[in-house]
What does this fold into?
Amino acid sequence: MIIHNFEEKNSLLNQFISELRDVNIQQDALRFRKNIERVGEILSYELSKTLNYTNKTVQTPLGSKNTSLPDTDLVLCSILRAGLPLHLGILNFFDTAENAFISAYRHHPNDSDDFEVIVKYLASPSIENKTLILADPMLATGKTLENVLKALKGHGTPKQIHIVAVIGSEHGVSFVNRIFPENTHLWIATVDEKLNDRGYIVPGLGDAGDLSYGIKL
It folds into this structure.
């Protein structure tokens, strides 16, 4: 896997990540969602530099101009519900991409620390020989992405996979590095050192889905 960790260089991403983590700023759900969207936009711009381009002629009112334009079939798949703001940020830049959505949640039997990831819903176009972008803001254990990859197998084999995440753990990054194809790209704003007993990133930011859309039952 090719890992692009933007924590290693100073950029405006630092500001947005610090606001996402801040317990006081988190009380503003609109701002929280907007910051995730912004992170998605910045990572999408960086991702765009690795796509295929074709020279095309654009006609202006006064003449014509040759330019290089993206020439890649994209499918953007987000993991509900936390992935929606990130999906929007990516879609703001890749506005012609096809879209897929999948529900994946943690089930803790008897409220124990152990959990399994359950996938219940998937709507996706064919991903055969296309470039697949997986949007998951929190790369904690990596189990969710593993199950999403398995669920998408029935829709074809992509020629390239890009994972876009906001915050990850070292454990999660290492796990997806093992199970995804070698030519997969991971675009991530920051990576934290550890997970707690329930598999949440520490220090992380909490539950991105709850902070975006309210506490779930």
About this structure: The CA atoms of residues 117 and 191 lie 22 Å apart. The mean pLDDT is 93.
